């Protein structure tokens, strides 16, 4: 796994989540920018899946529990689509706020995945 990739991903997703959350609190309705933030987050998570499959094969396995790491990753993959579906069902500001909070949760989960992969010793 690549440390700078995970940390950059956590920061970018946190900024996107914060911006979308602020937009939701400012009563912005669901729009293409909110959808793009969710899609970008999902793309970064797919990159994370590919890197997580390749890294152990290249000899750079996690120092923490591999099962815990994958549970975090699969759960994080489910949040952006679920929040986006919710936002389409509720096109008001609360739907946008759900997407923002979901992206913030993904940012925390990515940071935790970084800890499991690099810091935590099983």
From TrEMBL:
Domain of life, per UniProt, equals Bacteria
Which keywords appear in this protein's UniProt record, sorted alphabetically?
A: Membrane, Transmembrane, Transmembrane helix
| Record flagged with keyword Transmembrane | yes
Q: Which residues cross the membrane?
A: 6-26, 33-57, 69-89, 96-114
Q: Does the keyword Membrane apply?
A: yes
Know the name of this protein? Integral membrane protein
Q: Say which species the protein is native to.
A: Agrococcus versicolor
Organism ancestry: Bacteria, Bacillati, Actinomycetota, Actinomycetes, Micrococcales
